[in-house]
Specification:
The protein has 367 residues and is α+β, with helices and mostly antiparallel strands. It is built from 7 helices and 17 strands. The strands form 5 sheets. A 5-stranded antiparallel β-sheet has the order 4-3-7-11-10, with no helix packed on it. The protein has a 4-stranded antiparallel β-sheet with strand order 1-2-6-5, with no helix packed on it. Strands 12-13-16-17 form a 4-stranded parallel β-sheet. The longest helix is centred in the last third of the chain and has 16 residues. 43% of the residues are buried.
Length: 367
């Protein structure tokens, strides 16, 4: 089964070039943006472009949907000349909807780029986020197909310019491990109630970089802070329905994107700059930055979970599925799914993410 979404959205005023399969994600080269997305089993991929509306809420509206016609070694790619950082985008991916054989493509679902460096907005739970009809009362309801567009309720990706930051000669501190004293903390919880920090930056990356915070670290004598998950994550629907939230962050959706909820400066790439400023100030004070990361699963859950990114891009490739019935997921850690790290392209995603946080974001290590 394939989607029924209207895909005739291409704007004749938008010039496109074939682009390159690497680097994956959205890359600004100073003249335009190259988009590259891995999906082995997809039959069609679409780049969706967004911009703020003119209504009071300034909601993001999809103004172009461009078919990605080039494919190299299972990587779909396209280049948009003259487009600049700040462009908001996401994907729609089409292919077979055949859950029993591991395929859950649904072009009606907007999908986050696995390589997105910045994500704006947070997930707004709605029935449209699921690839199947949640109102189907059969025990096999995940085999049904949803034709409802999920875009209004999805966060979106933002193109950034990774080179647009002055590190001022910042280099790794390389504190010997036997001299390392680590302080584990939660970015929001650590400064949220600290009255010595300006109210507008409490609970944010900027709050961690505030002189009051750094002075406290220095008095303690620590040499490194270990930040509990800061990669963009989602809150389970079961928590949301109970008026709760995923405070700890162990349910990742964007492995490259610092979570926007900890930003005081903005949501359209400013969160990346704020994170970098935090690292730079901590390094200047002799304090290393270690990230608590989780790469064994994602926030999409099992067969009854939502379709937010990997599941809709290439479910069979990204996840470990049971051999006898690929409708179901291996769940080794009680989180609903397990990333298929045996596949080279999934392993590359993890390694590229780790490399990005070290080289571009200047963090010092991982737990």
């Amino acid at each position: 089964m394939a989607g029924s979404c209207d895909l005739n959205w291409e704007d004749p005023k938008i010039t496109t070039y074939p682009g390159d399969p690497y680097p994956l994600g959205a890359y600004y080269d100073g003249h335009g943006i190259n988009f590259a997305l891995y999906s082995e089993c997809a039959t069609k991929s679409y780049l969706c472009l967004f911009r703020p509306s003119h209504n009071e809420k300034h909601e993001l509206v999809e103004y172009a949907r461009i078919k990605m016609r080039e494919r190299t070694h299972h990587i779909w790619h396209i280049y948009l000349p003259d487009f600049e950082p700040g462009q908001i985008y996401a994907y729609r991916v089409d292919g077979p909807y055949d859950p029993q054989n591991g395929h859950r493509f649904n072009v009606n679902k907007l999908l986050i780029d696995p390589y997105a460096r910045a994500i704006t907005g947070t997930l707004e739970w709605d029935d449209s986020l699921f690839g199947y009809d949640v109102h189907d009362e059969s025990p096999e309801k995940d085999l049904s197909f949803s034709t409802v567009d999920s875009a209004p309720f999805m966060p979106k990706c933002v193109v950034i310019d990774s080179a647009n930051f002055n590190w001022g000669g910042d280099t790794p501190l390389n504190t010997p491990f036997h001299e390392t004293i680590i302080y584990e903390l939660h970015v929001k919880g650590f400064t949220q109630l600290n009255l010595d920090i300006p109210e507008d930056i409490r609970g944010t990356y900027a709050g961690i970089a505030h002189p009051t915070t750094i002075e406290y670290f220095k008095k303690l004598g620590i040499t490194a802070v270990e930040l509990m998950p800061v990669q963009h994550f989602v809150t389970d629907r079961c928590l949301k329905d109970r008026g709760l939230t995923n405070y700890w962050g162990y349910h990742t959706l964007g492995f490259f994107a610092p979570d926007v909820r900890y930003s005081s400066s903005g949501t359209y790439g400013e969160q990346v700059l704020e994170f970098k400023r935090m690292v730079k100030k901590l390094h200047k004070s002799g304090i290393e930055v270690i990230l608590d990361v989780v790469y064994n699963h994602t926030g999409e859950g099992n067969q009854l979970g939502p379709t937010l990114s990997f599941k809709g891009i290439d479910n069979q490739s990204y996840y470990r599925l049971t051999e006898n019935d690929k409708r179901f997921y291996f769940d080794y850690t009680g989180t609903g799914n397990t990333l298929n790290c045996r596949l080279p392209n999934v392993l590359r995603l993890i390694m590229d993410s780790l490399r990005y946080w070290i080289l571009d974001m200047h963090v010092d290590g991982f737990r």
